[in-house]
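As a warm-up, study this chain.
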Amino acid sequence: MGPDGNFNAAQVARGLLRRSRQGALATLMVGSGDPYCSLVNVATTPDGSPLLLISRLAIHTRNALSDPRVSVMLDERRAGDPLEGARIMIGGRAEQAPAEVPEAWRRRYLDAHPGAQAFVDFKDFLFIAVQIKAVHLVAGFGRIVDLAADEVLTDLAGAEALLAAEPGIVDHMNQDHRDTMNLYATRLLGGEAGEWACVGCDPDGMDLQNGTATLRLDFPQRILTPAALRPTLRAIAERLREAT
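Now compare it with the structure written out below.
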């Protein structure tokens, strides 16, 4: 939903991109070109592109390295009929990480999936980011929207200072402001009380995680620097405390 309560397709799609931790990856079989679908764990790069850590031994990896045309489906699981939840189908191309994996890719993936620490350095595992070409959103009756990549990805222009400071921001929030993140989660985002941690920050918002539960704190305006982030987070927290 948008800030005025109206349906905002791009915001719904961006939220699913940032919150999703598993998805269905569709690739094309080497040789035959037949479709092949598999379950994968997902994180995001700083701009919101789906980020995968997959084994070269897996069929989907061999397929993606042979033909980078892929599709990813991410969905919002709900009790009852799963088709009532929002879902997005992403069409794009698989981009293999360079020999020197971007630190932001590795850190963000491990923050989202700490268990991957056990095998992230295995030689047969590699990072792949999905370069989004188009997104198809299904968010309920009458809410079926096709979106371009620039409508769902985060614009990183001018945000170099914030991106460079992201590791420190995440550490600071997790060490000194767990109570504030629990406030965001329970009073603003509809989450249950728990050990909410910050797992990512970008110009559009902050990602929170508590075990397998994930939430997205959207900022009221684009944030480009750590100096602009502090008063924004403080103002949100003060407004929530005053409302109690």
